[in-house]
Write a structure and sequence with these properties.
The chain is α/β, with parallel strands linked by helices. The protein has a domain at about 1-25 and about 75-110 and about 160-205: Rossmann fold (3-Layer(aba) Sandwich), CATH 3.40.50. Helices cover about 50% and strands about 15% of the residues. β5 (about 120-125) and β6 form a beta hairpin. It is built from eight helices and eight strands, in the order βαβαααβαβαβββαβα.
């Protein structure tokens, strides 16, 4: 079972990816994690990627594909995998096709207004990194972390104007990708504004048909 999970920032993609990975016992593969792991372990590919990451440039498709090719050959991918954050473009999707045949693509559909509400109400502890949400998981005491008493703050990329910009980029980049998979009849759009358990149940029903 080879799956791809797509969704805008704040759509609950990470939560669903973890639930799918645990339930179906397949690895959750995130491009970001692979990059960080290779950079940390100072692999040959990691050293190449580090130059791009540290200078703020986009890691080129060719390098991402090489990292993915290596990861997908790992023994834990024998029974399938769940990709998160890859592919990001149609070109990457075409390259992925040369490596693996994808069974299903799930797109978590969440409105821009809901994404802004979810992300712009997020707070992080400066001291221990714990995360809070003013609507879903507020701290017991305003501005103070429940765990360590540290100060809570809003990350720059969680501010409303930045979130809107991130969404613009996401929509521009992802819409062609969704059309690509839709034409192959493997795209499933899921209402990501439902409760977490209902979103997972909808995904499960499609997988297990």
């Amino acid at each position: 079972m080879k799956l791809i999970l797509v969704g805008p920032p704040g759509s609950g993609k990470g939560t669903q990816a973890d639930m799918i990975s645990r339930h179906y016992k397949i690895p959750h593969i995130s491009t970001g994690d692979i990059l960080r792991e290779n950079i940390k372990n100072e692999t040959a590919l990691g050293k190449l990627a580090k130059e791009y990451v540290e200078s703020g440039r986009l890691v080129p498709d060719e390098l991402i594909i090489r990292l993915m090719r290596k990861r997908l050959k790992a023994p834990d991918c024998r029974n399938g995998f769940l990709l998160d954050g890859f592919p990001r473009t149609v070109d990457q999707a075409k390259e992925l096709e040369k490596l693996e045949k994808i069974d299903m693509v799930f797109s978590l559909e969440v409105s821009d207004d809901e994404v802004v509400r979810r992300i712009s109400r997020r707070l992080i502890c400066r001291k221990c990194g714990a995360s809070y949400h003013l609507d879903f998981k507020p701290p017991k005491k305003e501005g103070i972390c429940d765990k360590c008493g540290g100060e809570l703050y809003q990350r720059d990329d969680d501010k409303e104007e930045v979130v809107k910009k991130r969404l613009e980029v996401y929509r521009e980049q992802t819409e062609p990708l969704l059309r690509f998979y839709d034409e192959k009849h493997i795209l499933h759009r899921i209402n990501g504004e439902q409760p977490i358990e209902k979103v997972f149940k909808d995904i499960q029903e499609i997988i297990e048909v």
